[in-house]
Fold each of these.
Amino acid sequence: MPTNKKKIALILLISILLSFLLGSLVYILFLKKTKVDPMETSFDSRSEIYWKRLQNRPEVLKGQGYPSDLRDFLETLRGKESYQWNGDREKTYSFLLTEYPDERGHVLYAVYVAYMNWKEKADEIESQVSLTSYEKLTAINRLKAEIFPGVLYELIFPKHPTTPPAILVSYLEDYISRNPYSYSRERKRIFLRKKEELYQKEKWVIQTWESPNFYRQVVDLMYEREMKEMTDEEKTFYRSSKIEELKSDFWN
């Protein structure tokens, strides 16, 4: 009799586990099915065909008659739509077809719709208080690459030497927020390693764009413990010496 009870209990346990696994599988498949693909939301009904064509021939945007600074063009258009046309997308569409009365108008509209979708999703990421600034920056950059692959990314978000220093400060802030009791030696090691990773072969070009404020921020973050009890005069001297030390350690 006890043996039968054990068998029944075992069968019940197996049934419960199978039900749980089946439920989990359905849930995961449901999430996968309903998850929004950034690429699928980067067009509307009027721009869909042109957006899909653009994936195969993005170099058309480098052609004659297209804006030379695409990012500036898109931001200007966004300003017009928001403030001049009160958010009316129809007026944006009409404006582009009037200013570029051929395929260019349709292509630029497709790019603009994708750009505005990216901006909307980026704003959602920015509003998430649970994320650090570095996590937000990483997520937004990943989203850029998903929506605007390859040449499209390079045209809309061209590389600029000021970007790596900005990422570095954000990265250091994120590391310190996760490791508030870390020592300056460890913070410095982490910082220099990340700097090497970001700068790579372009280090000499990026160096010319490193602002005094960049180094001030880095030193204040790195040596916050040491500087806590210092006077303003002592901080100024200490900060200057540490900035020179950081430059020497990385560039030599």
Note: The CA atoms of residues 25 and 244 lie 57 Å apart.
Amino acid sequence: MNTIITDAIKNFYFVGQPIRHLKNEQIIEFELLLRNNIVSGFPKDEYAWMTKSETIHAKFLKHIVQEVNRILVDNPEIHFSLNLDQQEIEYETTFEIMKNISQENRSRLILEITEIPTLRRYGQYGETINVLAFKRLKKLGYRLALDDLTTGNNSLGNLEITIQYLDRLKISYRHLEKVMTPDEIVLQIHLLQSIVGRHDMDLVVEGVETESVSDNLQTLGVSLQQGFLFKTNACPTDCKKHVERNKRDQNDDHFRIF
């Protein structure tokens, strides 16, 4: 079993999608997206298997943290964000493994807590989200984001009880388009801007795919944007890139392999 897990883990790698800081182009930031040599896109089934138990997840996360450490060291001028599912922050070993990233490098890494709810709780808490886990990650010196706000378990209610530990909110424009009219989207953006303004956070709108959407968001004051509209040419020339023949996405100029 250990050999199977080790071999499977070796197939994982990261691509980076740029988060554009339109008010300050000097800040270069990428969200690290997990990929796998076996399948295209996000390896949903493989990732689910890696996170189904604490033992397997610990082996997986150790590898991930080693890779993130390497990326941070190789790219000292770049900021990154990394997803953690809510199941992952149920495991005690997660907090121990996350200590392996230096305090200095943690300042350039935002942990995005995704909307996927836990399948099994390992701690006792009465809330619908593990507030204590947010507090512990924050105490380790990480900046935290609530990913895909208003979807899954990342409701406005759960935002309210975790907000004191958050540095960033992220919301998907593609999701907003599915459930709201243009006027309602404007109201939602204004609401979120009011929240982040009062709590010294920033707001990132994902799923930006056209110039018109980007321009409209800038008119509303949204300067942090992410999506297929933006190319990876925001990365400086000394940004190191792993090139392996069997890795996918390397010809997609929306991503950069790290």
Note: The two ends are 28 Å apart (CA to CA).
